[in-house]
């Protein structure tokens, strides 16, 4: 898959809701490749925490930490998908492989 180098997050994706209101939003202007790298790192840590949570039944702190990291990761990926699906972003110029 190739991603144009000039694509950046658009900052339309909220996450971490309280009373149906988002507490946070993805920032606009982050290069897509950096955003995806960050999401991958968050998901890696979330996976490790989920594994710990499965082994330690005495506390749920690992499970909640994993849950919030997954929430952040999903928001990043959803924001990147909005950019990639936007009209005009399927150009062949400025493409990295």
UniProtKB/TrEMBL annotation:
For this protein, the record's Pfam families field holds: DUF3077
> Its domain of life?
Bacteria
Identify the InterPro entries for this entry.
DUF3077 (IPR021427)
Q: What is this protein called?
A: DUF3077 domain-containing protein
